[in-house]
Write a structure and sequence with these properties.
Chain lengths: ~550, ~220
Amino acid sequence: MITLGRKPHNYLNANYSPWSWLFSTDHKRVAILYLISITLFFFVGGATAVLFRLELMTPRGDLVISETYNKLFTMHGIIMVFFFLIPSIPAVLGNFLIPMMIGARDLAFPKLNLLSWYIYSIGGVFTIAALVSGGVDTGWTFYTPYSSTYSNTAVMTAALGIFITGFSSILTGLNFMVTTHTMRAPGMHWFRLPLFVWSNYATSLIMILGTPVLAISLLLVAVERFFRMGIFDPKLGGDPLLFQHLFWFYSHPAVYIMILPGMGVISEVITCFARKRVFGYEFIAFSSLAIAVLGFLVWGHHMFVSGQSMYAGMVFSFISMLVAVPSAIKVFNWTATLYKGSITLQTPMLYALGFIGLFTMGGLTGVFLATLAVDVQVHDTYFVVAHFHYIMVGGMVMAYLGGIHFWWPKMTGRLYPEWWGRVSAAMIFFGFNLTFYPQFILGYLGMPRRYHTYPEEFQVLNVMSSAGASLLGVGYLIPLGYLLWSLRYGRAAGDNPWRAKGLEWTTTSPPPTENFHVTPVVTEEAYAYSAEESEAEYQRQVEEFARGEETLEESRREL
Amino acid sequence: MTTSDSLYLAHHFDDREQQREAMTLGMWVFLVTEIMFFGGMFLAYAVYRWRFPEGFAEGSKHLDMILGTVNTGLLLVSSFTVALAVHAAQSSRGKAVAWLFGITILFGLAFLGIKGYEYWHKFHEHLVPGPHFRLLDPHNPQVDSRQVEIFLSLYFAMTGLHAIHMMIGIGVFVVMIVLAWRGRFSSEHYAPVEVVGLYWHFVDIVWVFLYPLLYLI
């Protein structure tokens, strides 16, 4: 209801008390709670990376001793994987957008949604407790028997934190899945869903099928540690490989939890800033599902050198290469969408273009790693580190930031400063490549991961990498600054600053608590950007460019 | 929207049918996660059974088959009373729902009591894995006691996890009894009863797999 002289009612000004936030079941407020918590974890995880990148500036261990170094990279892994990447796009953007994209008033289970944030936070408290009570040195993978028998660090506190957080991700997945099935607005049938919803649906599938297996593996480690029951420790008759199988059965699909939602964001952003229908909608939608399904069949490629059977290795190698097919389908479809589009290079689009390039690099090096013989050479080297950072950081973090910029006007009603946005996007792109490209070379030359010292000939590349990391760090701090700034001083965004399609743009910014004043009825497919409109946009840009040339000409004449 | 329509209908659903569909689907999806959760343990069981057949045969002989069978019977009957409760809710008999859930709780507690007795007995026989584990009178003298220990580790981990699920179920039944007694459920609004019933049946089915794997073979 709009009354003159008052701001229209929305989810942000509905109630200002802290309780109304902490006990809100509104999916948009829960998304904001998640946004705040994961941002916190992102910078804690980033700080540990700063420390070990500093250590790696010199070949000798002069800043931290090896044990501290082990704890640093373990914490970096645990926090970034379980407390940033896995919840990042699903729990923030997915929470905020999925109900709006399908025309619903909320997720199917709003209370479970709030509960998932509390579970996440409790898990986070345990992990922080593990960090301050001396840290963990097992690596984020908790390999047994080191984690279950030998390590004298806070293994169980950290594992408990991850165990608990796992349930928040299960609840999110469950909620998304049921919501997508039962809460769609009239006319929103499956093939009108935005691709962001499809990719989050595929992600939910992994969260539901994979996360419980991680939970049980960590539970078994706990049982072994506390009761000395022999499940994984060979001295007690157990089998350490069983842990690796169980762990990677979750943790390999989990890396697709950390990329699929990002692919969803890219599909939204590319279509909007190319002003074109997406190329091959069904292919992109089904390739998400294909990645989710294939993702469950490839865990053995983490264990090529663990002594598993050679034939198992060959099968895992082959299926791992198959994952490249749906991934490539997506990349080709995005590029085909760009072809002959009216492209504008706003900040979200810069992130999306960065994503395509970096994801392709990360994906192709993944094929190298899936090749048995090559993997034996580069296993546990910086090549692997660079590969997965190209996917996780170059892919997911770029997509996450692109998404945050794209939907920031919807979430807050304010525009971020465009110039700063472009500068930091460019800085992150260059910083990222400077950090991780040298690591491909380091790994190929044989520098193993997880050591705090290295031979002198690797120093130049390591210094390059550390220099890139500082650029990257600054690149991440700038958006933190200007996004906060824009909350107060940013220009009012209006309901649809990008003239984007999709139900979330049809409502006011910020949206009202119930999302839509009237339940929408969907009559057209997603991404109905028309050719005429695109042509008009092209003409507008040509004229703008011509005007710019004229002014340039005038100023020249004046000189 | 009339009053009876909006009663117990959460604000974000359009109608009761949508709400019921969402709740039931939600529970089914949750049960899928539970299958994966228990699945990790069943995998461990399969791996070690294949690797240590003698140890597992020996360990199985140290379990009390009669008590296991009685417990199986108790759980199956409790599933029946739950099914009756769902039926009672569908025909708006709230008091009957409360009574049937009450009986289910009794069966559940009896199960847990017997299970507790079995655990206590194992403790006395030094069959709890850990530093005090002793295999005192093996049926097969050649067997490696460490293999038997692994069997018993899995026995405790699997039945323990199952028992925790039963305790949660019993706790939920207590809440449901209060709600049913207050007349919350009717032929129009019985989804919660149905959903809790699904959960209990699942817990039963897990036992139906545990019983032969641990006690019989």
